[in-house]
Design a protein that fits this description.
Layout: E1 9-13, E2 20-27, E3 30-33, E4 39-45, E5 47-52, H1 55-70
Antiparallel strand pairs: 1-2, 2-3, 3-4, 4-5
The structure holds zinc ion (ZN).
Length: 72
């Protein structure tokens, strides 16, 4: 069961499809591209960038989702 309180969306350049597209927050700092469906990590260093995920990122998302599902 997934509860959606609000959906956080941003515009950004997706590193996968290289489109300026709408990104939907999945967990804190991680977004999913609405164009190609790939997941990205938001990285802020002067400007905002979106990075491809590495294994650590995927692990973090998995754990965050599990926590969110258990909570409540
Ligand atoms: Zn994309």
């Amino acid at each position: 069961m997934v509860r959606i309180g609000y959906i956080d969306t941003v515009h950004g350049m997706c590193p996968h499809c290289e489109e300026d597209t709408l990104l939907v927050a999945i967990v804190t700092d991680f977004y999913k591209c609405t164009n190609c469906g790939e997941e990205t990590r938001q990285y802020i260093n002067g400007s905002i960038k979106y990075l491809r995920l590495d294994d650590n990122d995927r692990d973090f998302i998995k754990k965050s989702k599990e926590l969110a599902e258990k909570d409540g």
